[in-house]
Structures are given as C-alpha cells and as structure tokens.
Amino acid sequence: MAKELVVPLAPNVWRIPLVRDLVNGFILRDDDGQVTLVDMGVKSSGPKVLAALGAIGSAPSDVTRQVLTHAHPDHAGGAAHVARETGRGFTVHHDDAAYAAEGSSPPRDRSFLLGRLFERFSRPGRDFEPLAVEREMTDGEVLPVAGGLRVVHTPGHSPGHVSLLHEESRTLITGDAIFNVVGLRWPVKAFCTDFRMTQRTAHVLGELDYDLAAFTHGAELRDRPREAIRRFLGSHRTD
Fold first, then answer.
1. What is the SS3 assignment for 151?
2. Using CB atoms within 10 A as the burial measure, which of 61, 81, 116, 234 is most buried?
3. Are 37 and 27 in contact (CB under 8 A)?
4. pTM
C-alpha cells in the first residue's frame, strides 16, 4: 500500500490526504469489495482520489456510492472528475442537493464582510462542476456502507452539512463541523451559511460514541477523541 496516498484509520476505512492533511477525503470498503467515497477535495484532487483507490487495491468500477458531506468547492471540486471515471452519481443531504446539482456553494454568512464578498462572486456552475445527485440522505438514516454509516445532520456550515459515523469501526467523520488544524477549531466563519448555527449543531458530536475522529480539514485524533471534542465544545458554549 502506498502510504503517501492513503492513511489507514480502521479496518476498511482510509483517509485520503488530498492537499496534505489540510483537505481530506475518505474511502470505506465493504467485505465484498464495494467502495464508498466521501468527499473529493478541490478541482485538482480527482486524480488523487483515483490513485488512492489503486493504493488499496480497488478500482473505479468497485465504487458503488459517492457521498458529499456538503456542497463546497473544496469537497466537491474534484467530484465530477471522479464521477466520470466511476460512472456514479452522488449522495448529498436534501438541503444541499440543489446546490450540488447546479455547481454552486450555499449562501455565505452575510454578517461577515468576507462572507458578503464570497457571496458576491459565487455563481452557479462556477464554484465547481455541476454534479448528478442520485440520492438525498436525511438525518439519522444509516447508509448501507461497510457495516453502517450513520448520517448526522450538522447544519450551519451549509444547510445540508452532515457528519458521518461509521458504526462498525466507531469512526466519526466530522466534515467541516470542526477542523483539526493546529488544534481543534471552528471552520472559517465567512465560509459558513450560518456560523452561530454551526456552533450550536456541532454539540451533537460530543454526544456520539466513537474511538477515532477524522476531519476533512486536519489529521485524525486517535487518543480519546470524544473527550477532546467534548472539551473543545465545552469551552465554546453558545447561548
């Protein structure tokens, strides 16, 4: 296995470092070889996702599901490239599905100057290449992925932002609810649709059970991750 292309997290679960550890995707593989991809990084990341498949001995034809935690260009930018190779559409939360289909980011938080600037320059089909949405997921459902992948709706960063809990390996994928870049931190405020909502809904991550926390921005936490996330959330309480 080419270690630089994938980072093993648990049996049949890998992180794909798409821009070093700063932007990550994930692979989950069923015992029968079916593969699920989660997040495809920036526009240039598509080939890295495909190379990561090869590194674990899988092929694009093994991919049966492609999931986006949300419709932002650093997660969906490489998605169209991957889709052309796998022939698969995308599973996205209902509240982000229309944005993924038109290739646009959801609204930014206009209470911040930078958010208003991003909003001004966002155009349908210009943020990332439009995607085929083949399934809309909902909060609490368990996707039939590698023993069960639970959808945890954590809106705020985007309306349909989700975190994902792989129940068999007890691995949490936080999405952009929380970053782990130079320590645990909130996502950039101006990138959120509603930053205050992001803070409120992330608290559900402290109530879940998991042994490893994986982040779409930053390296994973393997040592008592639930306790670390609960400490972070406890020190950043909202009204």
1. strand
2. 81
3. yes
4. 0.92
Mean pLDDT across the stretch 93-109? 92
Q: How far is 233 from 184, CA to CA, in rounded Å?
A: 10
Q: Which one, of 197, 177, 186, lies nearest residue 72 by Cα? A: 177
CA-to-CA separations, 114 to 26, 62, 110, 191, 192, in angstroms, rounded: 29, 41, 8, 8, 11
Structure tokens at 24: 């990550």
Cβ burial 60-92 (10 Å sphere, 16+ → b, else e): bebbbbbbbbbbbbbbbbbbbbbbebbebbbbb
pLDDT for the residue 238: 56
3-state secondary structure of 178: coil
Q: Going from the N-terminus, what domains does the chain have, and what CATH number goes with each?
A: 7-233 (3.60.15.10)
In the block, tokens 């526009």 appear at: 43
Residues near 19 by beta carbon (within 8 Å), at least 6 away in sequence: 41, 42, 45
Of 101, 136, 106, 104, which Cα lies nearest the Cα of 198? 106
Q: What is the pLDDT of residue 115?
A: 47
Q: Which secondary structure element, helix H or strand E, spans residue 227, and what is its range?
A: helix 225-234
Q: What CA–CA distance (Å, rounded) separates 189 from 33?
A: 39
